Each structure stands twice: as structure tokens, then as C-alpha cells.
Amino acid sequence: MLPYTIKRLVSLTISLMAASLVIFFVIEVVPGDPASFMLGLNASPETVAALRDSLGLNAPAPVRYWQWITGLVQGEFGISYTYKVPVSELIADRFWVSMPLAIYALVLSTAIAFPVGVIAAAKRNSPTDVSIMGVTQLGVAVPNFWFAMLLVLLFAISLRWFSAGGFPGWEAGFLACMKALTLPAIALALPQASILARVMRSSLLDTLGEDFVRTARAKGLTRRQALWRHALRNALIPVLTIIGLQFSFLLAGAIIIENVFFLPGLGRLVFQSITQRDLIVVKSVIFLLVFAVILVTFIVDVTYAIVDPRLRRART
Amino acid sequence: MALLEIEKLNLSIKGTPILRDVGLGVDSGEVLGVVGESGSGKSMTAMAIMQLLPVGTEWSGAIRLGGKALETFGEKDMCALRGNDIGMVFQEPMTALNPVQTIGDQVAETILVHSGKSRREARRIAREALNRVGLPEDRFPLSRYPHDLSGGQRQRVVIAMAIALRPKLLIADEPTTALDVTTQAQILKLLKKLVDEDGMGLILITHDLAVVADMADHIAIMKDGEVVEAGDTLTLFRKMSHPYTKSLFEASSHVPSRSPVHVPGRGKPVIEVSGVVRDYPLPRRSLFAAPGHFRAVDHVSLAIRRGENVGLVGESGCGKSTLTRAILALDPVQSGEIRLNGGVFSTHGHGPDRDMRRRVQVVFQDPYSSFNPRHRVDRLITEPFFLLDEQPDPPERRRRINEALVNVGLQPSDSQKYIHEFSGGQRQRIAIARALIIEPSLIVLDEAVSALDVSIRAQILDLLADLSDRLAISYLFISHDLSVVRAITDRVLVMKSGKVVEEGLTEDVFRNPRHPYTQELLAATPVLDEALKAREARAAANGSGASS
User: Fold this and answer.
1) Can you give the C-alpha Rg of chain A in angstroms?
2) Among candidates B84, B90, B96 on the partner chain, residue whose Cβ is nearest the Cβ of A220
3) Which of B24, B239, B289, B543 has the most CB atoms around it within 10 Å of its CB?
């Protein structure tokens, strides 16, 4: 187990280094000069040049890359071109909205998908299974922002149980924040839960057809015991893969939902920074998201090995 | 009262009749051999006893275990019965165990499900069961996972699960079909020992007459869902009153007639393999150590002459498949040289050109998965034509398709059909036609008849013998089945751990094996005649005539 984990850690570090290089050079070739953007259309070339100099944009690329990376390691992300505040502060505020939202949505989606997928597989081709498949098909097809608007109409406008949007800030207390995140989390979670439930069902059905499930039945286990004790754990690998992918999506891809609910999240920050050519913010947020995705992949990889002992032996 | 009695068992799945009026019986301490070809209903009979039937199955008749009628049992009662009173062992040990649970947990589960015993006690009984099946604690602690074990060892674990609670009846469905001969001999011996020690009844389902002749007290022969003949082993083999029994018997010891003029050592070799080495890299031990190598083929040399059939035998992992891949130039060799018709075919770092490559063709084991299901037969068998520099014109193409199909005993009209329209034996004929159509010098037959039922296998062996006589094609015949190799080859090579340990004329090697490994292989191979003779001798010694 330990050699496997170390191997995954090495792979994680290499991925991060490669990602940082790609991000840096992609941002380099993006058109648009932050200095001229900040000074507006009428700025003289001399002023722009002076600003470029003071922003450190004239240094050679490797030097700037090195400064960026060493900064990142120390938690120094630089100063935003437009907001004139440290990027780390900007990101920290948004991160504490996006991260809880992503986790909330993921927990919801998994909590719904697991039982639903298992029930559908256990009662294959029954009316229960057919209706679950129908509902999840709909869940996959409906866009989450439209679903979000329905939620707002019902729970915020008609029933007045939740507010229609906004985020009170963590100073307002844990419960108030979770309440504000509930509708967005549901809107994000339901399409994901539909996908996950379908994956769970088909993976479980495949596993239920395996020889070792027949062996378990021949030992005298009931259908239900065979499913819980033998099929489920073997069916988890593809499900974990999807959960890992979904978390990355939930963290970075929540921008539309953030807009629907006026949430100050990372998605909105990136979007605004791109339109304002605040490249230093874009660069840092993207790196942070890549870091989160790679970290989640690492966690999923380690979970694979916990679930399946065959993977514990480190392979090349 | 018999332990298990089946009377007039009729079974259908979604309206399709599978079993008709099946009647069987087995007593405690007795072995019943159920023999039949694929689709004869022998496995379905076993599943009916276990009541583990597919959805949509309907059955009628009587199945009584110890006098209790199973048709009155509900699913809950059956769960209490399975694993406790009836144990079952399956064909494929590689997939029969849960890969994510330790063998200890899996064996202990049988005990935990059926008795109120504590976990500790269950593990103690599991340990005992594993010891009984020959998996001692020092090498096979309860904490091992199935992927650490070989096929034979896994089958022992499955047997341990089945016998942990000392059931009255054990059903073994082709328990050794997927195993090597020496492992097969060990597993069969183990089953026999358990039957003797516990007084269990054993139903041994197999397609192999030699295995039942050795093991079973009684035999039931099944065909198309019916028992066509049943009786005690000696009487049944002596009389063989049903024509199907007779044809099975003949097919399983079938030797195709071949023209006798095969004098080895003359004529120029078609293929010469000299000093071939094939290494596989092993995973690195640590990040900085150089990766190690596993030598799968270790300086192997062989030569095959025109029209000569050479057999290559050995157990799984001996390197015969790796050698085959090297000869087919699918994998590069690390050292040594392969020459074809006198020219260099492949050496280290150098593979054959297209013209060379088409001179060597192959027929694989599984006739079901080796064809693209969306192509018609004419396209399937002309696939090797892409190795030709000039494509034959349509009439020539037509002529060659017809010729190849007729050569393998099919009709020219079959060329417009899809592969699913053919049976397993016919598919294997098409595979041979695909190899023949490009007029190769050598055909590699990689377990080409292993997946076929005995009667079909006999036909394919006849066809191969006929083609080799008429067209003077050479075969490299790779098989783990020694009786087949003996029937069809002129010379044989025995491989072990990547090396050829014995080589010679087939009859010489089989009559006087010199290498201890060859002797071991031959001793482990069940032979029908010998099993029957041994049984007769035993019966005579007991002075009880036909009964055993």
C-alpha cells in the first residue's frame, strides 16, 4: 500500500509541475495586455510601458515563471491588476464559497445516487427500476440552471423557505451559510446524481453477473446478502472514477449556478478576471483548480487501492 | 433411499425446453459422472438441484434430497440448504472467487451464514477446511487474496468453501476443465479423498470420458437435454447400448488416418527456430533500480519440415504461447534467429516483410471471438489478401474463396453468410480456410481444437490431417491436450519453464518418455482405456463383477 501511495504522490507532483508550465505559457500567449487594459484606450505608450515595468511584465519569461511559482509555494499570489488587492485574499473569499458548495453538492449527489442505483440494480426490470431509469434520464437531460430557476420559483418565491440568492458570509454563522448554499447544491447535485445512479446501476448489474456472485449464492447467501457483501464493493471502481470527475466539475464548473444564485464563487471570479484581463488572478485561480483536481484524482487513486487489493501492489 | 433422486425433470427457459424427463440418482459416498457435450443440459441439471435458475425458468418433476422434495422448498429454505447440505464447485477458478476479499473471509462466510458460530470459531473451521484441501497455513494464511494464488490453488479454495460444512452432496461442474493436466490430477484426487473421508455424494459433471472412467461409480450420458444412457461405469462402457455413447467413445479416442510416409529428418525445413530468447520486463523493485527481466522463452530451437506436423506441449506458463507469438512475429525476439524457407524471417531488431509474413498463418483457440461479426465469410477469409502485393482480380478472388471453403468441407454458397450463422466447429473450419487461402508454408494451430466438443474435434482433426496430406502444409500444433497431440503430430516438443526439455518422434516420446517432466505429464493425463482397465482389475480383485 505504501509504495503505491508514494508512486501516486510522485505522479501528483509531476502533474502539478507540468500543469503550472502549461498554464503559464498559455496565459503568455493570450492576447490582451493588462497594462493597456488598466489604463484605458487613451493612455500614451510611455505610460503603458512604465506600468508594464512596474508590474514586472518586462522581465524574461523564465524569471517571471520562477517568481510566480516561488510565490505560490509561499502563498504569495501577487497583486490583482484591477482590484489592487492581494490575489490570495480575493481567492480565499471565493474559495470558501465554492469549496463548501462543491462538497455539499457531492455529498448530496452521492447520498441520492447510491441507494437509488442499488435499488434499481437489485430490482432490475421491475416497475421501480423502470421509473428510476426514467427519472434519471430526465435528470441527465435537464440543464441545471433551468432546474435552478424552478427551485427558486418553488422554494424561494412561492414557499419562501429559502432566499433566492446571495451569500451571507461565514460571519453570519454556519447554519445561515448552509441554508444559502442548499438550493444551489441541490441544483448542482441532481443532474450529477442521475449520472452517478445510472453508473452505479450498470456497474452493479455487471458485477451481479460475475462468477463469484454465483459462488456466493451457492454458499447459501441470499440474493441481498450476495449483493451487499460481494457485488457492491467490486462495483465501486467505476463509481469512484465518476465521483472524482464530478468533484472537479462541481468546483470549477459551478459558474452558471453561481450566477443564478448570485454567489461570490471562484467561477464568477475567473469569468470577471478574464473579461478584465486580470491575468494574474486567472493564472492563480486556474492553478488552484488544477491543484484541486489533481488532489482529488490522487484521493480517488488511493481509494481504488483501499477498495481493490489487487491495486496495492505497485506496478510500473 | 438414495441421497439425491431426480425424476422426470422437465425444464424450460422462457418457453424453450432445456431438459426433458431427466432422471438421476446418487448415493452417499458415491460418485456420479454426468457426461455430455456443450448444450446437453448437464450444467442446467446442476443448477436445478441448487435452484439457482435463470429468470423465466419453469420446471416440473421431482428433485429429492435425502427424501425431502425441493419443489416444496421456498427460497429461504433453499438458502439454508445451499452450502450446508449441497456444496458446489465451478468450472472457472480464476473468476469464482471475490477478488476483493481474503480467502479466509470467503471460506469463513459459508460457516457464518449457516451456523450461529462466532467469527473466531468460523475462522478456525475455515483454517481446517483449507488445510484439508492442501493449502497449509504457513504458505496460505487466511489473509491471502485470490490474486496471489494460481488457478489450481484457487480451485482448492472453492472446494474448501464447498466442503467446509461437510455437505451431504457435492456438485462439481467441470472442476478441472480450465486446469493443466497435473493440476487436474491433483484436484480429482482431492475430490475422491473428500468423498471417501466424509461419505459425501459427488456429482461430477464433465465432457471428458477418461475423467469419469477413472472417477465415477455410475455414469449418466446426456444429449440435448435428455439422459440417453445411464448405469454403472464398467457395464456402461462394456455395453454402450446407445449409439451416442458409442460415438462419444470413438470420438474421444479418435486418431485421424494420415498417409504413413512422414519420414522426419528429410527434406528441407520450412521453418527453423534457433536459439530464440524472449524476455519480458518485470516491474521495477524501486524507483531507481533497473527493471528486471523474466525469460519466458530461453534459447529454444526447433525445425519443421515440409508436410510435417510438430506438436508443442506444456502447461500454462511454460512459454509455449510466447514462443508462438515470436514465431508469428507478433513480438520481437531478444536473441536468436527464425528462418523461413531458408531466408531470415526475424532476428533481434528485425521483423519479416509482408511476403514472408504471409507464409505463416495461425488458427486460434476460440472460434467465437476470432471473427468480426459484421463481415461476411468471403470478406473474413480473404483478410490475409492485404499481404499480397497485387490483389487478385474478382474471378480469381472468387475461385480462391470457393477453393478454400471446399477444402475445409464447406459450400461456396457459405461465403455470403455471417459468422453467427455457423456452429463452433464450422467457425473453426472458416478459421482454417482463412489461414489456407493465402497458401502458407506453415500454419500455427494454437489450441485450435481445445474449445470444441469431442465429436466436432474428431472431425476437425480429420480435416487437418487431410489438408496436410493433400497440400503438404506444415503444422505447429500447440496444445495442453496430450491425446490430441499424439493423434495428429509426427514429432513433439515438451516445454517447461521456457525451455524444450524433450523432443522426438511423437510415438517414441509417448511410449518412452525420458525426461521426468514428460513422464509426470503423461502420468497425469487421464487415458480412457487405461482407466477402464484399472477399474476392471479393481472389480476383479473385489470379486464382485461389474459393480465397484
Assistant:
1) 24
2) B84
3) B24
Q: What one-letter code names the amino acid at B124?
A: R
Cα B405 to its chain centre, rounded Å, is 27
Q: Which three cell numbers stand for residue B470?
A: 493433400
Alpha helix (H) ranges present in chain A? 2-29, 34-39, 45-55, 61-73, 87-122, 127-141, 144-151, 174-208, 211-218, 223-226, 232-252, 255-260, 266-275, 279-307
Cα B368-B370-B375 angle, rounded to 5 deg = 95
Tally the residues of chain A: 316
Cell numbers found for residue B11:
425444464
pLDDT at B548 over 70: no
The pLDDT tens digits of the residues spanning B499-518 come to: 999 999 999 999 999 999 99
> Given CB atoms, is B369 within the 8 Å cutoff of chain A?
no
Joined together, the cell numbers standing for residue A195 give 449520472
Q: Which residue of A has its CA nearest to B281?
A: A316
What residues form DSSP beta bridges with B169? B86, B201
Residues of A in contact with B161 (CB under 8 A): 215, 219
Distance (Å) from the alpha carbon of B383 to chain A's nearest alpha carbon:
34
Query: Using the beta-carbon criterion (under 8 Å), do B109 and A217 form an inter-chain contact?
Result: no
Q: What is the DSSP letter of B259?
A: -
Q: Does B313 touch chain A (CB under 8 A)?
A: no
- Between CA B98 and CA B161 the distance in angstroms is 12
Q: How confident is the model at residue B547 (pLDDT cuts 50, 70, 90)?
A: very low
Q: How far apart are CA B269 and CA B329, in angstroms?
A: 18
Q: What is the 3-state secondary structure (H, E, C) of B459-479?
A: HHHHHHHHHHHHHCCEEEEEE
Closest to B88 in 3D by CA, of B189, B186, B165: B165
* Rounded Cα–Cα distance for residues B498 and B326 (Å): 13
* 8 Å CB contact of B100 and A309: yes
Are the CB atoms for B186 and B148 separated by under 8 Å?
no
Q: How far apart are CA A118 and CA A124, in angstroms?
A: 10
The Cα diameter of chain B in Å comes to 77
pLDDT band at B264 (very low <50, low <70, confident <90, very high): low
Write the pLDDT tens digit of every residue in A203-230: 999 999 999 999 999 999 999 999 999 9
* Bridging pattern class, strands B442-446 and B360-363: parallel
Distance from CA of A16 to the nearest CA of B (A): 19
Contact (CB<8Å) A210/B95? yes
pTM, 2 dp: 0.83
Number of other residues whose CB lies within 10 A of the CB of residue A13? 10
Distance CA(B107)–CA(B129), nearest Å, equals: 8
* Chain B residues 24-53 within an 8 A CB cutoff of chain A: 50, 52
